[in-house]
Amino acid sequence: MIENKRIYLCAINNIESGTCAEDCKFCTQSVRYKADIPRYKRKEISQIIDEAKIAVNYGATGYCLVTAGAGLTESRLEFVCNVAKAVKKEIPYINLIACNGLATIEQLKELQRSGVNTYNHNLESSKEYYSTICTTHNWEDRYKTCQNVNSVGLNLVCGGIFGMGESDKDRISMLNSIASLKPMTVPLNFFHPNEALPMVQNTLNKDIAFNLISKANEIINPKKLMVAGGREITFKENQYDIFKYGANAIVIGDYLTTAGNSASKDLENIKRLGYDIV
After folding, report:
1. What CATH superfamily is the domain 6-277?
2. C-alpha–C-alpha distance, residues 188 and 160, integer Å
3. How sure is the predictor about 35, in pLDDT bands with cuts at 50, 70 and 90?
4. Which pLDDT value is given to residue 242?
5. Strand pairing category for 185-190 and 95-99
6. How far apart are CA 33 and CA 25, in angstroms?
């Protein structure tokens, strides 16, 4: 095991929620499955700025602007760019991350000009397994977006989800594909079941999940290996042991449509266990 003592914190803001028409079987944001989640078109920019300031006060160095949908429409791009400019004006030093689905080189350049430093686009699964969990767009388009991110010089965040019925071979295939993109940060998500979804059971146990963190660190070795969605339900009382297996970053606060620990609770526990916040 490789234990990290310096921990990075990131916060997510779901600035457009539950409006996606895609059929990803793991995602409550899809309108197809009618999950009981907050649904809204656009958050007020003033609210997003206030929430960013709260995240920074809790120690977050990364702040991610997430939208629902397959990718960046003209309207969505304009909205995210306006949000980015406003947040950067108030907090110029923050690592501003955009997570807005499929994106072209020109769209990514526009985000970059608006103050976005980093783009997050996850592969979600192996190339071989992807059609099992989504049919409305393909894995190759996701991979191409990540290549576009690298080509324009934005920092790349790229990870995936474990526990969706995939095989061990699929897991290794996904990690190798992520490694080929050389991302700065790799978020590992663990499927959070919801009764509204076609996929209702997480196929992982805690020991397998810990081993996957170690395997991701071994294969990819990114600057930041983040455990994101599903941390609380997968690891429960052992959730901070993720740092002993190679993780050195977490999401604080809530996720896209599920509640996380309170940020103050995470900070208290991290410091109590002798870790330092970057």
Report:
1. Aldolase class I (3.20.20.70)
2. 6
3. low
4. 96
5. unpaired
6. 9
